[in-house]
Amino acid sequence: MRVVTAVLGVIALVLPSSGAGVAQGSSETEVRQAETRRFAAMMQADTTALGGYLAEELVYTHSNALVETRAIHLEAIATKRTIYESIAPVEISYRSYGETVLGTGTVKSKGSIGGTAFDVTLRVTTVHVRRGGRWLLAAWQSTRLP
């Protein structure tokens, strides 16, 4: 419950109170491109590139309820505690709220965390914020699908 509360708190902090709508045009395209590049950096364990797609306040919640900050997420990938053999969207929709985009959909992922292998399809919710002309991931919440 604390994890859900934390993610909802991040969403409440970054979403403006009005102007909601389905992301169209450049915002959606830019977020999709950023996600593609972020996934590639995760698979290549390129934490320098990956860091450029993560907000400082990132809350990254794995499907096993492990919650990571930006620093811990980068360290886990750098030390190979978390290994992504593959990670790719199956279907993700985006809604734009000004300088924030909320994504919902499914992602297929394979790898290991702490030596435990996973090969899963995940339901995800993502929060991206636009800063310095770039879309940064501020929150990731995933749930394993049966």
Describe the structure.
By secondary structure, the chain is an alpha+beta fold. It has a single domain, classed as Nuclear Transport Factor 2, Chain: A. The protein has a seven-stranded mixed sheet with strand order 1-4-5-6-7-2-3, sandwiched between helices. 31% of the residues lie in helices and 48% in strands. The protein has helices at 2-14, 26-43, 47-51, 70-78; strands spanning 21-22, 54-61, 67-69, 82-97, 100-113, 116-131, 134-144.
This entry's quaternary arrangement is single chain
**Strand sequence of the main sheet, in spatial order?**
1-4-5-6-7-2-3
State which percent range the strand residues make up. over 45%
CATH topology: Nuclear Transport Factor 2, Chain: A
User: What about the largest sheet?
Assistant: 7 strands, mixed
- Averaging pLDDT over every residue, what do you get? 87
**Spatial gap, N to C terminus:** 21 Å
Number of helices: 4
Level-2 CATH architecture: Roll
Helix amount, in percent?
25-40%
CATH class: Alpha Beta
Task: Describe the structure using short key phrases.
4 helices; seven-stranded mixed β-sheet; 146 residues; Nuclear Transport Factor 2, Chain: A; alpha+beta; 31% helix; disordered N terminus
How do the helices and strands line up, and which of them pair or pack?
Elements lengths: L1 H13 L6 E2 L3 H18 L3 H5 L2 E8 L5 E3 H9 L3 E16 L2 E14 L2 E16 L2 E11 L2
